[in-house]
Amino acid sequence: MDLRNILSTKILVALKKLNLPCENLSVSFSSRPDVCDFQTNYALITAKKVKKNPIELAEEIVEELDDTSFSALKGFINIKVSDKLLSQFANDVLNDKELGIEKVESPRKLLIDYGGANVAKELHVGHLRSPIIGEALKRLHRLMGDTVLADTHLGDWGMQMGLTVLQLKEDGYLDEFFRANSDYESIPLKNITLDTLNDEYPKASKRKDVDVNFKKLADDYTLFIQQKREPYYTIYKKIRAMSVEEIKKNYSLLNTSFDFWFGESDAEDYIDGTIKLFVDKKLARLSDGALVVDIAKEGEHIPIPKKSEDEEQRYKNPMPPAILKKYNGGYLYISTEIATIAMRNKMDKYDEIIYLTDNRQGKHFEQAFRCAKLAGISPENQKLTHISFGTMNGKDGKPFKTRSGETIRLKDVVNLLIDKASEKLKANGIENDRELARKIGVGAMKFGDLSNIISKDYVFDIDKFLSFDGKTGPYIQYTIARINSILNKAEDDFSKITVENSEEREIILALQKLNSSYKICYDEYSLNLLCSSTFDLAKAFSTYYNNHKILSEKDAEKRKSMLSICLLVKKALSKALDTLGIDVVEKM
After folding, report:
1. Which of 423, 501, 563, 587 has the most CB atoms in a 10 Å sphere around its CB?
2. What DSSP designation does 461 have?
3. H/E element holding 147?
4. Would the pLDDT of 502 be above 90?
5. Within 10 A of 419 (CB to CB), how many other CB atoms are there?
6. pTM: predicted TM-score of the whole model, two decimal places
7. Would you say domain 3-81 falls under CATH 1.10.8.60?
8. Is the peptide bond before 231 cis (omega within 30 degrees of 0)?
């Protein structure tokens, strides 16, 4: 349901009558809304082909249309949509359960991999963007008709686990496990909390950089876990279970949910078979005891001649081999990544698998995707997509941290948002409603994040994000709450919408732009246009609300039409917020 399609159909009829080609017709929103609502440059791009002057061709088409909504200007066909057509469109959208949002023509089955929390570490501010963006993309694709499954893909099988278990053992937390001969499952993790893990892992991580023997032993512990050797494996499972429980609580604060809670460990059973596949296909080779796969393409990883024997070898367009297995037989991050693709394709058939991480992991996924395609682990027609996002920075332009320079925990960021939102609500006469404050605070952060181009860094400005005015999440929520107040006070029934003034025209045109933004965001794997279009609709309604007394309108039919416009805007804004993963609130 798109006004541009209705207008295109009218123009196509005229083109056929004039025996003109139809393939280049495209109606777009006007760049000059003061002149017209929509326009097409069809005459400009077709004139040469049909050997006509573009200005005369545009005038000829407009004359054939015989409709005052269309006019010609300098080769453009400008369209000022009639109030009647806008009214028809508004009523159609209001009565459509999908609110006029058109689905994709060929729905697909997707898996979106986002979240990416590491076990044995508490979620921090660096974990915010992935669930915010991933959840919105999941909801957008489902809205557009795709079947979408989401997996958090926990980091639970790498060296951080070996480091953590080793440090816990050396600090005396695991003595009972290493004294026991059996029944490790019944032994509790005494005195080990998430705060303990938050202390132990960083300690071990720093130590490995200066203590060669400690690093080697941590490598061995990691291998023992991967081999499911006891008691290392049971200790690992208990740490994982404790971490996952806390991770779920953190994600729920962000309205983020997953269909699967798999981790790197779940692909463990596929790793040996995956590596054997590379060996059997003669795609892997040994290099200093490690098993590697050459994935460089023509023009990549070209050695740059050394100036001296002591100089380190450098490469032009570096794309080093992917290391599948370490010298000691242990697996690396990329080993589990490729095995995870194999596992996912064994479980189901996906048209596309989307991975969402920060910008730093671009090369990792490029290597993993090339390996998967090279070995046939990912079918030829399957799309593997990596969406990389920028950093959330403080006002100083640096990654958002505490004043002392420490990384901020995710739940502390959420609590900060809740406290700030509570202050705003208190000023509006609403106190002691922490859940409402959470919805507003988290919504503010999400809208502030998603309003930006995903790949770019952005500044986390909590005061700006939480403003009840301007392009913010609370502004949209407040607009809906205002409409709720109007509808709750009104006792009238609704009627058909009749567009009669400029403010109503602006609302319906903004609604059309909002509906159009869904497909653009779908194609671009981004949400910023949906955010700006949602704001434009809310802003158009605010102007309407300020210029017209809806509840005191004396004309009964006009009042019912105005209330129907209110309902239409509420539904459209609510749908947009839900797609962004933001709660709608009844009051503010």
Report:
1. 563
2. -
3. strand 147-151
4. yes
5. 13
6. 0.91
7. no
8. yes
pLDDT at 90: 97
User: Per-domain residue ranges for the chain?
Assistant: 3-81, 159-253, 263-389, 420-580
> Which structure tokens are listed for 315?
């490469």
- Strands in 76-79's sheet, in edge-to-edge order, are 28-29, 38-40, 76-79, 70-73
At the top level of CATH, which class does the domain 420-580 belong to?
mainly alpha
CB 115 within 8 A of CB 126: no
Is CATH 3.30.1140.32 correct for 263-389? Answer: no
If you search the block for the tokens 């609704």, which residue do you land on?
494
Q: Which residue type is seen at 506? A: E
**pLDDT tens per residue, range 46-72:** 999 999 999 999 999 999 998 989 999
Q: What is the mean pLDDT of the chain?
A: 93
Backbone φ and ψ of 388, nearest 5°: -105, 140
In order of 81, 496, 508, the CA distances from 88 in angstroms are 11, 9, 10
Share of the chain above pLDDT 90, in %: 79
3 state SS for 411-436: HHHHHHHHHHHHHHHHHCCCCCCHHH
Q: Count of CB atoms within 10 A of residue 423's CB?
A: 11
For residue 483, give Cα distances in angstroms to 421, 474, 490: 21, 14, 11
* The one-letter amino acid at 474: P
Please report the pLDDT score of residue 405 as a whole number. 63
